[in-house]
TrEMBL record:
Coiled coil: none annotated. It comes from the Bacteria. The lineage of its organism: Bacteria, Pseudomonadati, Bacteroidota, Flavobacteriia, Flavobacteriales. Pfam families: Glyco_transf_5. This is starch synthase. It comes from Capnocytophaga bilenii. The keyword Transferase applies.
Length: 269
């Protein structure tokens, strides 16, 4: 992985999120690539529970200030950045006052999902692309973690398909255990279709459950890493029928070598 540029995208990353399997993997995988001579950038949402002073976040004015269009509404993009202590890894935070400055992350105090989580996913995906374009940083690999990130592969392969900066990028999606029941707002498909993406391409978004969001991400990825132990049979069948490279990562504590090998395999495709 020496000198390879790897972009990690996740809704949870240590030390900015409470400990979880997703937050830990989203920290340990970049740290592994960084230790092996790779160049790393991490993107995550700037949720309201992230303490900006403690983690020394600061706004990057030259990257902020553009508007992201969500369902015909202009939404201002704010970019903040911090460095993970002792790791020399930069983390970029996608921010907006309306979408992310609430106390909770994806659920309110009663455990209900925020009704605008669908729009937040679109904003997150588009915000990442626009920021990477401004950075002029060409990623060799883009590794997606968590359902909040699942629209990024779709947008990269459709809406942004003519962007030269991503023309050689390989996309990998990690499938973890589901962390919500039910579905996002069922108008998500219309909001994505507003961007000129055919409804046939995004048919699973008619019912945006966790696994249907993952279906969309996997369909537009070059490889898949499965770290979930709760895979429905129909989802396993879907995965097999796509005939994409899949790494079944059962050893979550000692994954480094298998990840390096898998990255190398995808880069050779």
């Amino acid at each position: 992985m020496k000198d390879k540029k790897v972009l990690y995208v996740s809704s949870e990353v240590l030390p900015y999120s409470p400990y979880s399997e997703l937050a830990n993997l989203s920290f340990e995988a970049p740290r592994m690539v960084n230790a092996n001579g790779g160049q790393i950038r991490i993107f995550m949402p700037k949720f309201g529970n992230i303490n900006e002073r403690r983690h020394q976040l600061h706004e990057v004015i030259r990257l902020s200030g553009i508007n992201i269009v969500i369902n015909d509404i202009d939404v201002p993009l704010i970019i903040k950045v911090a460095s993970i202590p002792k790791e020399r890894i930069q983390v970029y935070f996608i921010d907006n006052d309306d979408y992310f400055h609430r106390t909770g992350t994806l659920f309110d105090e009663e455990g209900n999902m925020y009704p605008d989580n669908d729009e937040r996913c679109i904003f997150f995906a588009k915000g990442i692309v626009e920021t990477v374009k401004k950075l002029n940083w060409l990623p060799d690999v883009i590794h997606i973690h968590g359902w909040v990130s699942t629209l990024l592969p779709l947008y990269l392969r459709t809406y942004y398909k003519d962007e030269p900066i991503f023309s050689e990028s390989k996309i990998i999606t990690s499938v973890t255990d589901p962390d919500f029941e039910g579905s996002l707002d069922n108008t998500l498909i219309n909001k994505v279709a507003f961007d000129g993406i055919s409804k046939k391409t995004i048919e699973p978004l008619k019912n945006p459950t966790y696994h249907n969001l993952m279906r969309i991400a996997i369909k537009h990825s070059d490889g898949v890493i499965v770290v979930s132990e709760q895979i429905p049979e129909d989802f396993q069948t879907y995965l097999k029928n796509l005939r994409k490279p899949v790494l079944y990562n059962s050893d979550k504590e000692n994954f480094q070598e298998s990840y390096r090998t898998f990255y190398t395999k995808i880069l050779k495709k």
